[in-house]
Write a structure and sequence with these properties.
The complex is a heterodimer of chains A (about 170) and B (about 180). Chain A has about 170 residues and is an alpha+beta fold. Helices cover about 20% and strands about 40% of the residues of chain A. Chain A has two domains: about 35 residues; about 130 residues, Immunoglobulin-like. Chain A has three helices and nine strands. Chain B is mainly beta and about 180 residues long. A four-stranded antiparallel β-sheet of chain B has the order 2-5-9-7, with no helix packed on it. The chains are: A alpha+beta (about 170), B mainly beta (about 180).
């Protein structure tokens, strides 16, 4: 009987170690969930025609490769500035995020791509931060400055980060 | 011993619950791609298309050039090299402005286009056919599939021989003008 109990306790301890390891090493577990954004937490919503979901991910495509390309207007010309309100929105679905407010930052690596909270009032930034209350959304606009860009495709990334809680 | 076992089991269940309950949103990070095709003026959203040999696309940018540097100048054919001093030339339909924004695919999405040239540089602009008036400021509404042509007046009064160069500024805003 003692042996049986010993053998029973051993796997329990192993499972416990696994969970303890899981809690303290893989921590924070929500990050793992959060990175897999499209299965559990989805906060980005494209607002076509210039943004859409590509394999479940937000993509901004201003070229004739976009599924929303209507057969005219193939892109932006060099040395021009284009400002688009409402390219995508960040939505705080409280049942998914479990947060009454989230703090969101969106960052662009280049001044060629400026960001602002819609509507455009003349100011923009490479990095914006705003709060999204529960079950509400904030629309993000973009400003493209093609000064000095050669003809051809211009590819960039923006980074979207969100934290539970207010921005303070 | 049995109690210990039960105690451990309860602890384990408790920890699993704690882990499960911890799976709420804390942090999110995603890189999202942006592709912008950089294209010539006659293919872009607010499209500027040359409509006269004096207008052409220079590295994708609309350029109006009345000189021997224009690609369409042909010396062997004895083309004119430029405009003489103290003359006025009127060119209708120098270039067209069209509205190729994708928003037009679903609804009417007019734009209000404002074009300006510097004052007192001998250049004025006008919309459509020449009706005797021109200005350094021009504003008109452009609907999809209805390009608006812009003409130019060159008044070389009191100008010396040599090259004259100015920049034209073009702006467009969503919505019909005056709306």
């Amino acid at each position: 009987m003692r042996k049986v109990i010993k053998f029973a306790v051993l796997p329990i301890i192993l499972v416990m170690i696994f969970f303890v390891w899981g809690v303290f090493v893989v921590k924070p577990i929500p990050v793992v969930l959060a990175v897999d954004d499209n299965t559990s937490v989805s906060i980005e919503n494209p607002l076509p025609p210039y943004a859409f979901l590509s394999n479940g991910y937000l993509k901004i495509d201003i070229s004739n490769q976009s599924p929303f390309y209507p057969g005219f207007g193939e892109g932006l010309s060099p040395d021009t500035v284009y400002v688009f309100n409402d390219v995508f929105e960040i939505y705080n679905n409280e049942t998914e995020t479990g947060e009454s407010v989230i703090c969101v930052s969106v960052t662009s690596p280049t001044p060629a791509i400026g960001l602002f909270v819609s509507p455009y009032t003349g100011t923009w930034s490479q990095s914006i931060e705003f709060e999204v209350p529960a079950n509400q959304s904030v629309k993000v606009g973009m400003r493209f400055d093609t000064a000095g860009l050669p003809l051809g495709d211009y590819n960039q990334h923006i980074t979207i980060q969100a934290f539970g809680g207010s921005c303070e | 011993m049995m109690n210990k076992l039960i105690g451990l089991a309860i602890l384990l269940i408790g920890m699993m619950l704690a882990v499960g309950a911890g799976a709420t949103f804390r942090y999110y990070e995603a890189d999202r791609s942006i592709t912008v095709a950089i294209v010539a003026d006659d293919n872009e959203f607010i499209d500027l298309t040359p409509a006269q040999p004096y207008a052409y696309l220079n590295n994708g940018k609309l350029t109006i050039e009345i000189s021997t540097k224009n690609q369409k100048y042909n010396e062997t054919l004895g083309f004119g090299r430029g405009l003489s001093p103290n003359t006025t030339y009127v060119f209708e339909h120098m270039f067209n402005v069209s509205n190729e924004l994708w928003e037009n695919n679903e609804t009417d999405f007019p734009i209000c286009v404002s074009i300006s040239v510097p004052q007192n540089k001998g250049i004025e602009i006008f919309e459509g056919d020449w009706a005797g008036t021109s200005s350094t400021q021009l504003q008109f509404t452009v609907y999809h599939d209805t390009p608006v042509s812009v003409g130019m007046v060159f008044d070389t009064s009191n100008m010396g021989l040599g090259d004259q160069q100015v920049n034209m500024d073009i702006q467009a805003e969503a919505g019909a003008c005056g709306s």
